[in-house]
């Protein structure tokens, strides 16, 4: 994400091992840089952790981000790390509130890249209405990391209407995907492989929490299951839930939203879009009775304009995901074996 | 930490990129390994995050661990990652409850090393009485990481008697260190440099939460400040708090507990023990009236047998740390410049 904010001035052009040593350089980097950008009442406590009152049912989630390249079409690792954990909390039926932020930096990372990432983190946190309240910075020697890894962990409050659990899924429930699949993975792969398209394919990284809250407000416990299909794609999510529930999951390829360019790129790269990573979409499994209204609300949301009902839960083929292809044949969609797209998030 | 538990059988001797792909290999590693070892009612929810009820004032902390070597005299990165975050929460005056656990693994890490670390995590969590409730596993290519990095984030409940804040520190308050300084740093450095001593110097990594709870139970708000002096050593902690409070911090070298072998190793390596990392000790700043009783309780605890009052807070030299040396001279103890011991935690 581009920004016109001026960056703070530092004596160093790059991050050095000393910036992770806990001494003067660490202190200056935090005081004159990180805290200035991300500061808020809780982060400013500057203790080993943040303290705040909390009550209710909470969700707690963590993810480390190792995406390569760490600056990519449509974003960078900073906003990805905020949106990713915000979305994981939202998928638990929670309203995300507080994030921690931990950097593992390879010595030599340019200070301007680091601050570009920090600014993206600030903007993403602002948009998602979460506070970065505590953090950590480590630096490793050149060749012992890869520019920048980020961990975010997060705490959210479970929405009072939410009752998300795979055990609540029943035959007849409808499977909805909130947007075009495989966009993030192909945006990253196209940079890695030097592919060019008529228009640039950009990552779909976005915070989904406000969209989810709106759906939970209205549909409450008719929403049985939510999950963002990041690495491993929608095939992996559906296989996991099929295995957990021992129910069958039938999807129809005709209904799968995918951008034409992304589909073309998948063909060119020999990738099955069902397995390609996403960042800005989710899968919802909802009571059949509300599926049409749920879809209508989603389609009216900027994060769900391409949402579609892609299939349903069935008693047939328990534990398996089966897809009806465009030409009418059926095939079992298995778990991904190996890793077709390493370091996609 | 040695263990005699049998390790699960895997088709692979090492972690591959596929184990981080979100597909079948990731699924198997989690189902047949990680969940078996670390499983509990909350982790077993197997969602994008864990959900549980919580109420009160909470503390939230995060740290990434990049120590090299990741298996070292006295422990490994697994227990270090549990104890480190448990201790950070304790230093906030909290009773640690829930941890997240996130791995960044370099492709090629041996499966047996990974499971040795997992078993240490299990044991450390058990000892500290915390639950690992949510996690993440990423794998990066060879040469893009260094065997194993771990992030733990944690949630604790603030002890009802705790009132830890640097703003409460007053002149006359006593500075206490709970044990011998510089042990962890020297244990790691002696392995890196191939130093041999008569007896092996081992890391002091340990969970301090039960010790802290006992002190908070009795001394409550007479405890003004707690901090574990990890990287940067006690000099960095005292400088940070001196800068925050604009008070002076006077310490007496004669009272600083340090093992003879550790002091000898510091001389040999040209390191000042004030700046060397610790893992199993803390600095407490307490009301002068309770200092003797506080010390007595600490000395009776296995984590505080070597505890000592090392100095006091003063109106002299505001914002500075001054040490009276063994031969009676005084010197300003500055912030560490650079990083004398990279990747010590």
From TrEMBL, chains A, B:
Q: Which Pfam families match?
A: AIRS, AIRS_C
Biological process (GO) annotations? protein maturation
Where would I find the PurM-like N-terminal domain in this sequence?
A: 55-158
Domain PurM-like C-terminal, by residue range, is 170-322
For this chain, the family text in UniProt reads:
Belongs to the HypE family.
> Could you tell me what this protein is called?
Hydrogenase expression/formation protein HypE
């Amino acid at each position: 994400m581009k920004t016109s904010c001026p960056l703070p001035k530092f004596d160093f052009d790059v991050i050095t091992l000393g910036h992770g040593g806990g001494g003067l350089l660490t202190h200056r980097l935090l005081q004159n840089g990180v805290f200035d950008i991300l500061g808020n009442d809780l982060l400013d406590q500057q203790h080993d952790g943040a303290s705040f009152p909390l009550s209710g049912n909470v969700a707690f989630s963590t993810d480390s981000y190792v995406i390569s390249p760490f600056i990519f079409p449509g974003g960078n690792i900073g906003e990805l790390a905020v949106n990713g954990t915000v979305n994981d909390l939202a998928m638990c039926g929670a309203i995300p509130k507080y994030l921690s932020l931990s950097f593992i930096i390879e010595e030599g990372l340019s200070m301007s890249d680091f601050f570009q990432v920090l600014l993206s983190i600030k903007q993403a946190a602002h948009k998602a209405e979460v506070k970065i309240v505590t953090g950590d910075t480590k630096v490793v020697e050149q060749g012992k990391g890869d520019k920048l890894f980020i961990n975010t962990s997060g705490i959210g409050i479970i929405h009072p209407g939410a009752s998300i659990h795979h055990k609540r899924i029943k035959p007849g429930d409808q499977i909805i995907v909130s947007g075009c699949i495989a966009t993030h993975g192909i945006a990253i792969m196209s940079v890695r492989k030097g592919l060019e398209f008529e228009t640039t394919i950009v990552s779909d990284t976005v915070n989904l929490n406000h969209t989810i809250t709106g759906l939970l407000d209205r549909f409450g416990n008719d929403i049985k299951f939510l999950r963002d299909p990041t690495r491993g794609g929608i095939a992996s999510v559906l296989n996991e839930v099929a295995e957990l529930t021992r129910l069958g999951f039938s999807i129809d390829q005709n209904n799968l939203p995918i951008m034409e360019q992304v589909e073309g790129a998948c063909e060119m790269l020999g990738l099955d879009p069902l397995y390609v990573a996403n960042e800005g979409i989710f899968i919802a499994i909802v009571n059949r009775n509300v599926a049409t209204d749920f879809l209508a609300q989603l389609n009216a949301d900027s994060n769900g304009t391409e949402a579609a009902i892609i299939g349903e839960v069935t008693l047939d083929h328990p534990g398996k995901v089966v897809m009806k292809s465009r030409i009418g044949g059926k095939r079992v969609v298995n778990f991904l074996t190996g890793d077709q797209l390493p370091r996609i998030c």
